[in-house]
Amino acid sequence: MKKKTMLDKIWENHEVYSEANEPSILYIDLHLIHEVTSAQAFEGLELANKAVRRPDLTYATMDHVIPTSPDRWNIENPVSKEQIEALIRNCKNHGIKLYDLDSVEQGIVHVMGPELGLTQPGMTIVCGDSHTSTHGAFGSLAFGIGTSEVEHVLATQCLRQTKPKSLEVAVTGELKPGITAKDLILGIIAKYGTDFATGYVIEYTGDAIKKLSMEERMTVCNMSIEAGARAGMIAPDETTYQYLKNRLYTPKEEKFESLVAEWKKIFTDEGAIYDKRVEFHADDLIPQVTWGTSPGMGTGITDLVPDPESFTGPEKQENAKKALHYMGLESGTPMTDIPVDVVFIGSCTNGRIEDLRQAASMAKGRKVAKHVRAMVVPGSGNVKAQAEKEGLDVIFKEAGFEWREAGCSMCLGMNPDIISSGQRCASTSNRNFEGRQGRGGRTHLVSPAMAVGAAVCGRFVDVRDWVPAQLSNLVVAEG
Ligand SMILES: CC(C)[C@H](C(=O)O)[C@@H](O)C(=O)O
Ligand code: SF4
């Protein structure tokens, strides 16, 4: 029998129609929607006089445009306000469950789905949002779609898709103390570039990956899209099942056990051939910081801002030159000499409870540097509530961080949380494009630990020098 990859298996389980040299039609198990990419889709649907085929497989949240201040229903921007109103209207008209700002379940779509147990192994999951790849951490095939595809899925619960190729990213060795899942994915993208996975679904394998918690796996899969991938995935295992047990939307007791039996079939057969394979050695990885305007323009904290001439080919050299100009950096500057004005801890990359625990363990008893504005934004209402139960909010506030309501916040300039032109931000998010956090703003991508280091010292520091033992074991028992 032909050996199959995990991608092959999930694909075959969902293919409702296929024809040679044509895209297949895939059945979609879970459709997540948010305010930015759904309004036009509903409009199209209504114009065509169609109903939502499976409102029971469609879940909505509000995350991108909402303020993260306590009065967050008070949306001043008229476009944002209309997007939120349209989402409320559309969900009501079509019988779709919406987690709005009054519910504790509301949050960034890629934090909320997994947390509620909506995201499960073996599923096909789509959302009009590129970072849908996050959900692949559970061994699902999860990818972002455009607004016209959102309409198609709403109408049919199916999607026309060409099967992507498979790419194994094998992570050998282990993450050393102080090195996080964020450093791992930034390191992989810095090494292989932002397009090495274009046209592929990445499957991350290796012991270092197996040892990651679910939340760390989500951080890795989240940024697969920044490597060009269609999706990222990790085979489900005990860690996955344990995480999903007793979540709001996972079945209970025997039903759960029989689902686990199904989930155990989702793995890549031994000897199956991926279309492409790369290896990454985790042993020598050090904390990562980006210096440029793409997630691949990154380096280790002990390095210097690179010389554009050190890149091969005129295009890469020109890109590096342009990026350094935008970022206001000179080559040869030690990364640890770069000062920061703003620190943002949050987003669907690093806004989960373990991220906040890690950040709090670093911030405890320390103070944010005087000239720095630092904020912590939980990825969901549930993350916020849990953090408050554990007293993490108090640690942050005492250290001088702002403690905000859940949302995408400063990850992208679509809501009031933005940085000003010329300001430099250490951010735990996933994109450092020009103007991403506000026009003229300069973004450096880092882990939550590195973000706290930058907040306290007012510049980037090597957090391995900071009680590394605290960082080596981040998972605190839930209280
Ligand atoms: C607004 C949305 C469509 C966008 C995405 O697709 O990723 C956003 O979430 C982002 O991170 O840039
Ligand atoms: S947190 Fe950032 S990356 Fe994630 S969905 Fe929101 S805007 Fe996109």
UniProtKB/TrEMBL annotation:
InterPro entries per the UniProt record, alphabetical: 3-IsopropMal_deHydase_lsu, Acnase/IPM_dHydase_lsu_aba_1/3, Acoase/IPM_deHydtase_lsu_aba, Aconitase_4Fe-4S_BS, Aconitase_4Fe-4S_dom, IPM_dehydratase_rel_enz, IPMI_cat
Cofactor(s) it depends on: [4Fe-4S] cluster
Binding site residues for [4Fe-4S] cluster: 348, 408, 411
Keywords recorded for this protein, A-Z: 4Fe-4S, Amino-acid biosynthesis, Branched-chain amino acid biosynthesis, Iron, Iron-sulfur, Leucine biosynthesis, Lyase, Metal-binding
Entry annotated with the keyword Iron: yes
Catalysed reaction, written as an equation: citrate = D-threo-isocitrate; (2R,3S)-3-isopropylmalate = (2S)-2-isopropylmalate
Enzyme nomenclature, EC number: 4.2.1.33
Record note on cofactor: Binds 1 [4Fe-4S] cluster per subunit.
One of the record's GO molecular function terms: 3-isopropylmalate dehydratase activity
Pathway assigned to this chain's UniProt record: Amino-acid biosynthesis; L-leucine biosynthesis; L-leucine from 3-methyl-2-oxobutanoate: step 2/4
Aconitase/3-isopropylmalate dehydratase large subunit alpha/beta/alpha domain: residues covered: 8-458
Keyword field contains Transferase: no
Subunit structure: Heterodimer of LeuC and LeuD.
Task performed by this protein: Catalyzes the isomerization between 2-isopropylmalate and 3-isopropylmalate, via the formation of 2-isopropylmaleate.
Family designation: Belongs to the aconitase/IPM isomerase family. LeuC type 1 subfamily.
Protein name according to UniProt: 3-isopropylmalate dehydratase large subunit
Native species: Ectobacillus funiculus
